[in-house]
Write a structure and sequence with these properties.
Elements lengths: L2 H21 L9 E3 L8 E6 H9 L11 E17 L7 H11 L4 E4 L5 H13 L4 E4 L3 H9 L5 E5 L4 H5 L3 E6 L25 E9 L4 H15 L2 H9 L3 E2 L7 H22 L5
Parallel strand pairs: 1-2, 4-5, 4-6
Antiparallel strand pairs: 2-8, 3-6, 3-7, 3-8, 3-9
Length: 281
């Protein structure tokens, strides 16, 4: 579900290497590598995402401390989560869904791309927010889950906005809400969860750049400035829009913001993981 954003951001990192060299002539003096998903040494980027925040609780002994072992550079983009349902579910919007789910929760089933996946956690957060408990059916990936949703074998599914567009447009499934505070430019006619009564509800997958913890401040600032300049180019913004991603707002791009955001994301995602009793050795 994140392959296309990763490819795009990898390309963005390639652009940044040249931009960084222009911005700081003494750095880099050797090749720059982007690493997914954990802390490197030397001149290496880390493409961090919400998955890293999830893993801090999902794994009993994480390999690294996402909040402490990396130097945040910039939040790049987010992909909002949407709530989709089987086409014959008697609901046209989020409020209809809640009204149907509350009396029928004991027989309903929600799918996911796997236990601990972003879609699983987003649906868990949604269930907690509306006050329902529904049986979770984990699949080995989003594709099989989507197929069973189309076939009507499960009732609903939380997925990234860019991945379900073909099924939505062809009428194979129905979309009930975008699980964010604001509407998405990709789906401007789809009411947000906030608009539909779930005040300030936010469920998104995000991506950002990080460097090793002890990277000098001038290098962090150089990479930050080059990234922001690249993010502002129309071609990058258009490509992100094509995959359902939204460029981070200017006030959310500072390293200081990303540091606090990571800590809040770890705490936010810990709650549904612990509630579901999910743990990986």
């Amino acid at each position: 579900m994140i392959a296309r954003p990763l490819m795009l951001l990898a390309g963005l990192a390639g652009v940044l290497c040249g931009a960084g060299e222009a911005a700081a002539e003494t750095w880099p003096s050797r090749p720059v590598t982007m690493v997914v998903p954990f802390a490197p040494d030397g001149y290496q980027f880390v493409l961090g995402s919400r998955a890293d925040a999830i893993n801090q609780t999902l794994y009993k002994t994480p390999l690294y401390n996402f909040a402490a072992d990396l130097a945040p550079v910039v939040l790049v983009a987010e992909q909002p989560t949407i709530l989709v349902a089987r086409k014959d579910l008697p609901a046209a919007n989020l409020q209809d869904f809640i009204a149907y789910a509350k009396p029928n929760q004991s027989t309903m089933q929600m799918g996911s791309a796997g236990a601990g996946s972003t879609g699983h956690l987003d649906c868990m957060l949604l269930n907690a927010a509306v006050g329902i408990k529904v049986t979770h059916i984990p699949y080995r990936g989003g594709g099989p889950a989507m197929q069973d949703l189309i076939a009507g074998r499960i009732d609903y599914f939380c997925t990234l906005s860019g991945t379900a567009m073909p099924q939505i447009e062809s009428g194979l499934i129905k979309v009930l809400a975008i699980l964010t505070r604001d509407r998405s430019p990709v789906l401007p006619n789809l009411a947000s969860a906030h608009e539909q009564g779930l005040t300030d509800f936010e469920a998104t997958t995000w991506f950002g750049f990080f460097l090793p913890k002890r990277t000098p401040e001038p290098i962090i600032q150089s990479i930050h400035d080059a990234t922001v300049a690249t993010m502002e180019t129309p071609s990058v913004q258009e490509r992100l829009k094509e995959i359902g991603a939204i460029v981070a707002a200017p006030e959310r791009r500072s390293p200081q913001y990303l540091q606090k955001f990571v800590a809040s994301e770890i705490a936010k995602n810990a709650a549904p993981i612990r509630a579901a009793g999910i743990s990986i050795d």
